Amino acid sequence: MSQSDEKSLIQFINDIPPGVNAYSTVANQLFSLLQPPTTPAWVQWVQRVILLGYGIMFLQAVYLVSLRIKTKMFRGIIFNELAIFWFYGKAENEYNHVQKLTLNVIKTLQDASLSYSPESYDEGKLLIMLIPERKAESHLNMVNKYIRMAIQVNLYQSVLPSRKIDGRKLNSETGEAIMLKSIGEKTRRKRDLIVMHATIAYTSTLVYLPVIIWQSTFKGDDFLRNPTWLIGTRLSAILIIKNARLELPNPRAQTQKITSPTLELRDVFGRCEVRTNTETISIPEPRLQPNTGGNILEKAAIAIMPLRIPNGGIRTMRTALHTKSQWSPTRMLSPRPFVRSTSESSNASPSSSNSDRKVLASLDGGPVNKISQPIAPNSKAEAKVAFYTMGRIIRAMIFTTLGLGTSAVVAFAGLHLWVENFELPPGNRGLRALKEEEELYGWKEELEGWGAAYAGGGTDSRIGWKARSLVRAAWVAANWQTGQRALSQTGTDVADEDGWMVDSAFAIAETRLQQALLLARKRGLKLDQDGVVDRALMELESRLAYICECINTPLALTKAHQVYERLWQACAGAIDRLGKDGKDCWEIREGMRIATRLGDVGLKLSTSGLILDPLSIVDSQRSAEQYLVWSVTQGLGLAVGDGEAFRKIPTANDQSVFAKPGGIFSFLTKSKQPIIDRDSTTASASQPLKAEVALLEASLDALNQLPPEKILGGPYISPTASRATILALTRFIVHLATVDVNLAYRLQKRTHGVLQKAIPGNLNNNSPDAFLHGNWFQTREALAAVYLAELGYATKHLKPESVVDLCQSALRSLDSVLSKERFQDEVFKRGGTRSASGRLAEQAHRIREEARMTAAMASNILGIMFENCPVNVTKESPAWCGSQPGCSSAKAFFTRALRYSDASTTSDGLGGENRMVSLWNQSRHHLDRVERNIPSTASDPISSKSSSSLSP
């Protein structure tokens, strides 16, 4: 273990929360340090493609490589290769020693974790177990040394062949090649190999030197675990090393002969063909000049004068006509120049046939001599060809890279611009409300925010461009990412057999938001600065906590609890400064919402198994209950116009009640008797909880005495604060039912009475905001009726007919909400993107989904109630059972529940776009059970087109 690893490990141990098994956590962390970093999939595919290309090149040039084996340079390369293998072998041996030492320490930690308990845990004992790991530092130093030496040998080997180039020797060999053609061919091939190899060697050196410089910037062996360095060296090294190893210039260019191509002209059925030793060129008739006279071969000779013969480097061509009686049209002419003699010219018969004509071409472009001489190699021209070919390859690579890079940049910028301008800003379609009305109903405060929703934008420019990009990336992951990801109990990316499979969308979004918040804090932004809460950071941290809730692992819930606690502390401080007059303000409303979330997360943590101490579990649950009570008392206090009266239990600064900042694990140090009896059969509320419930009942009774228009809508409380109050009260009653169902029934009965009386005062259709607020109250009143029916049936306080009446009343109210045509207005419609949606589309969609969920719950309860009715109805049957058989009525209600939970199966406008899987499965299970007992000839009691009366 290096010094940097030791420091980070000690910091990791100090950050382990109390109550977590530190031995197994540190063991998992050490195991993760042993794992090498992995490269992305695209890097691995690029590596495979490059290897495949070099394999094909090697097969094409096996003969050329075999010739190189005989040289002294090849023996030097082989020697260096052995040195490289030796260095890497020694590095692997040293790493095996490090791995063996670390695995022994991990085994010791795992053995100690079996007997772990929070009371007997000693951090000093844990550090003593880690002392043997220090022996690994010397082995890691040797690993670093061997790898650096191997890299330096690689660099030297790529430079070595270029030092073998000797210009004077090449010139002398070129001179010899002028006299001897065979020697000239060998020299040219050798020169081509050396020029190409020198170019590759110099290019490799130029690219490889930054890799060495980059590596020297790391401390110790840190470069071995840096993913960026790994990607860069893998892609660059494979290009460089393979070029230097194979020494493969273009095989096709190496095997070409240096002789100039021969030329043959044939008269084929009135059409001319030009044949060389490499290819055949056909000259069509239109290319021949008709007014030149002569036969077809003469015309062809004139026509091919401007042609360039491929692979010959010819710039000009001279032609001569020579007549010889014994010449055959199919004879292959040599490249030497010919001149028609005077005697032959004088003796030529003007009436000679076409077969007596032959075309001779001088292909070297030089003076016409009668003595044939070998063509002198042109080193300058060949070097130009080689560099021209390499230049084309380099240009193609550069343009390809630039094209791909430009496409990637355009796609990246386009994606971020799309998300910033179309997905993150709230909808703005539909009728705009007055500013006073928007502030009054506060629907904008309940929008999903990513940093600037409060201002109607996407992200806040104050956090910087990099943090804004990370926020957009978090949105993309949360909305477009698919798949699952394994997380271990220690929170690292290494999964174990006891780990959790979570949605990768939330896992990636959490990481991106954490990075964005870190960058925002580095720019000097604070959550509570000079007594003012920063709303941008409030939105980002609230979104982070919500995503941690969605991950729903114990460690993620702990993180969410800590974030919510920090946000609540900031709002509570603002409440003390701004809310002393008992009036409503944004900080109070936000604090109420956050306190409700804190209560939910705290209750989840108390049952997650992360807290092992029973006393701590009780204290954690007690803290969650008091956060919920705090939220309710704030709202009820504002509702009756006396906010201070209801802040006594508890206050924002009451540290004897609430946990201090740092999470629920602060309870681990407390030692007192349990407050709540956790026996599942005799569960009852504690005395403090009973006192708080009594206070809430008294406040609800006082609120119920007010006129309908002032209930949850007086001068001191805004509509958005009244919604937050009802939401917190509902969450508290749901939890209270698991502690004391009788207390929950009493409190729910008063809540339903208040909501029932408050509906007329909150129903207002003057504006879209008021219309939505009234429908929200109507939906919540129906939900309160369903909860009351459930609790009353469980405690025997309500008779079956009362339960049926409550559920049927709730269904009628919910159908009224879902069937309102005003939801089709532009202001409530959802568009293709968020910015193209209506201004209140998200809130309307959420209300309709809650209405569908509540209606499905009421239908299932009614189905269960009617399932208990007799099959054959008699006079002794209960009046509420109706005239239909019980199973038939139950089937009708379970079918109705299926329609509510899956709106895609209906066409009557009953709701949203998503299927509620849990409710749908529950309704499907009930329906299958009833269908096995229902007669096939029974009629459907709910087949009427009217939905106003749902009773069978």
Automatic annotation (TrEMBL):
The chain crosses the membrane at residues 45-65, 193-214. The keyword Membrane applies. Residues 324-363, 932-952 are annotated as: Disordered. Keywords: Membrane, Transmembrane, Transmembrane helix. Residues 341-354, 935-952 have a biased composition (Low complexity). This is Uncharacterized protein.
